[in-house]
Write a structure and sequence with these properties.
Helix content: 55-70%
Low-confidence stretches: none
Number of strands: 0
Oligomer: single chain
Order of helices and strands: HHHHHHHH
Number of helices: 8
Distance between the termini: 23 Å
Mean pLDDT: 94
Largest sheet: none
Shape: globular
């Protein structure tokens, strides 16, 4: 599957009811040996700013989960791999923030502080009104695009 198709799939998933994190992770999960179901499970809790607490944007969390699938320490003492992962996450976070102004779900939704968000755990009903007033489809597209751009740049570097 082409990277552009994966970005498109991310938006389609969000528009069909999946949370923002799931929508970013699932289209790329097969590239790391994960099934759709495994990806849905591991990303389920990070939607709506982590468990609907409106903290770090779920789409950005999905981006960071993908970074962990690509670069991680398999041994607790592997500081170099931890550092490589943290560097990638910081680079991705900076790009997401550059494009959107913040990483915070509440701020993206126009809520001044996450502490003032309604912490009702019930997922919002997905209606045309919901989609019309939310920036979430754009955030999902942005996060998936940043990951696709990262993969493209990585492929170019590997060719050299």
């Amino acid at each position: 599957m082409e990277l552009e198709d994966r970005v498109k799939q991310a938006v389609e998933m969000f528009m069909s009811g999946y949370n923002c994190c799931q929508s970013v992770v699932v289209p790329f999960a097969d590239m790391y040996g994960y099934t759709r179901e495994q990806a849905l499970h591991m990303s389920a809790s990070f939607g709506a700013g982590i468990g609907r607490m409106r903290m770090t944007c779920g789409a950005a969390c999905g981006l960071f989960m993908l970074a962990g699938l690509e670069k991680c320490a398999l041994e607790g003492s592997d500081r170099a791999s931890k550092s490589a992962n943290y560097a990638l996450v910081q680079q991705l976070a900076a790009e997401f923030k550059r494009r959107n102004g913040t990483l915070i779900c509440a701020e993206l939704l126009g809520i001044k502080k996450p502490e003032t968000a309604n912490l009702n755990p019930e997922a919002s009903e997905r209606t045309p009104q919901y989609y019309a007033k939310r920036p979430c489809p754009r955030m999902v597209e942005c996060a998936a695009s940043i990951w696709a751009e990262h993969l493209s740049a990585k492929a170019v570097q590997e060719e050299k």
